[in-house]
Amino acid sequence: MNIHEYQAKALLRSYGVPVSDGRIVQRAEEAKTAAGELDGPLWVVKSQIHAGGRGKGKFVEAEAGEKGGVRLAKSKEEAETMVKQMLGRTLVTHQTGPQGKQVNRIYIEDGTDIARELYLALLVDRASSRISFVASTEGGMDIEEVAHNTPEKIVSFSVDPASGLSDFHGRRVAFALGLEGNQVKQCVALIKQLYKAFVEKDMEMLEINPLVVTTDGNLKCLDAKVGFDNNALYRQPDILALRDETEEDPKELAASKFDLNYIALDGDIGCMVNGAGLAMATMDIIKLYGAEPANFLDVGGGATKEKVTEAFKIITSDPNVKGILVNIFGGIMRCDIIAEGIIAAVKEVGLKVPLVVRLEGTNVDLGKDIIRNSGLNVIAGDDLSDAAQKIVKAVRG
Fold first, then answer.
1. Which end of the chain is more exposed for a tag (fewer CB within 10 A), N or C?
2. Key word Translocase present in the record (predicted)?
3. Which residues are known to be catalytic?
């Protein structure tokens, strides 16, 4: 789960992390009052969406001379004008895709006099199962570009959970960032604060880009992007309360409410599979035979009839889907349950595209009988290869 920048900064502030003072605005008429509560004389007006690259982003139907989703205002009146220009409009960045995201919230923040821009992130290194730090002197840039063009400017290391975090980790980051004097002490303290927040709040990623050195020589987190482990949200009710469902794909949101693992893709063949590995293999074989999957959908090993029905409804709600492939291996999951779910879903939402079903495993004969006697126009797949070829052929005409 992701949260907005202003929410991330409020969370980090509670751990003592140095961030700028700011106010959130959801209506244009609130902007002038919000700016007046800050010191000025420079205000930063930031669009709040779950995507990076906001500063370089462009609004749909932008007027000539309009800048991106992050702008500098030199007066309260100018800040108010900028808020009016941004709220309710669609911002397109390199992370949103061409469809962009609608801006429903604006963060007005005190301006900062910047001497240097740096990069700092914490993330879970899945190779070592440890928390890793990533630091670079090239702040304010896309870290992917830095990694590609100047990888030597990125320093990365992990923390051994047995010994835990120590001051030398903070000093290692400070030296990697070229900090000096009192900045080193500030960095050691900052690393402790960020690490504590990361662990206690079950974060997956914490990115500060940029981490700045101000003109008076102090460190400040000028931006913050935070993602949390969905599997740990049950023990983080305060974090779960920050969820902004308007930022999520409606189909993925619906799937999460039924404990379905769903990710929308750009293809035209919908997939319903049990097991992540089998789902990946199903997507691969669809591509092998010349088509593209419209989604990743794992109904899990113990799915119920209701979950299967909901999964089918989510797939058919995608207007890009021109055909559906159901590929189930019944171990814990019984094939007759899948069959009953498919029939229930088709009767509820209808079937307007070709449907190929391949069943194997527990109660497979019963499952096939249920589908065969349902009267539905369903194409049977003998095995995965046969099923993939049949759905691709049906979709391609």
1. C
2. no
3. 119, 207
